[in-house]
Amino acid sequence: MKPGLSRLLLLLLATAFVVCTALVPAAQVRKAGPPGSVRLYVFDCGQLDIPDISPYQLTRAEIATNLMSVPCFLVAHPRGTLMWDVGAVPDRLIPPGGTGTLRTYGTSRRKLEAQLNQVGYAPADITYLSFSHFHWDHVGNANLFARSTWLVRQAERDVMFAEPPSVRTEPQNFSALENSKTTIITTPDYDVFGDRRVVIKAAPGHSPGHQVLFLDLAKTGPVVLSGDLYHYPEERTLKKVPTTEFNREQSAASRAAIEAFLARVHAQLWIQHDFNAVAKLNKAPAYYE
């Protein structure tokens, strides 16, 4: 075969391959239907190996471990879905089969989007996005959910897009939210789905607009996801308030208010950074209901 014809044939074959490949649909996520009652999925979004615990006013002898868990949460409700806190290390920094790292002490081996896919959801399916607060270890995958409605308090949004940026966050990981559909929360309690089953509660102090999430689960019972109301469980038992809070007096007042609420409704408090406690939680695809 003449060289010119060979090159032409190879070009035609390559073109045909591209066309045929384009016609093959990408793997589809098996879509989850609306649940009959509220479900809570817990995803493994890595850990923090805290190098210095002195800001927490604790000693190594007083804590079980210096490690902090980094869970992400999906709330599936008959009326929609809510992502609550989305990790430290963005999916884009996690190599296949390897470990992604951010700020040297934040690590994750599992991509959040893949874990969502496993339970029948894609980021585009998520109705609402909200964070306990804006710090880097809670907003890592925020840009995945730029098409969701962002539920945020004005003080928190303001600090997220302030210039110069806060040293406590990574603006590139949530930059897409600046143009997202946004609902500004103006009340202490925000009833996400209108039936009091999923309620965002103000708990300022750790950050200007810090908040916690209350869930009324039919079988598990009432649960509050702490955000960073506490980091180590020993902060709660020893009544230690970190020196790095945005406003320590507000933090103390928020802790007192949430503790009173827990007692009143007989709710569990899940401390999101409690490494040993979170390790015992059922992870997706299992769920709490």
Describe the structure in brief:
The chain has 289 residues and is α/β, with parallel strands linked by helices. Helices cover 22% and strands 24% of the residues.
SSE succession: HEEEEEHEEHEEEEEHHEH
- Secondary-structure content class: alpha/beta
Strand content: 15-25%
Through-space gap between termini: 68 Å
What brief labels describe this structure?
five-stranded mixed sheet; 22% helix; 24% strand; eight-stranded mixed sheet; 289 residues; 13 strands
Q: Would you spell out the secondary-structure blueprint of this structure?
A:
Elements: H1 3-23, E1 39-49, E2 67-77, E3 80-84, E4 100-102, E5 106-108, H2 112-118, E6 128-130, E7 149-153, H3 154-160, E8 182-185, E9 189-191, E10 198-202, E11 211-217, E12 221-225, H4 233-238, H5 248-265, E13 268-270, H6 275-279
Parallel strand pairs: 3-6, 6-7, 7-8, 12-13
Antiparallel strand pairs: 1-2, 1-5, 2-3, 4-5, 9-10, 10-11, 11-12
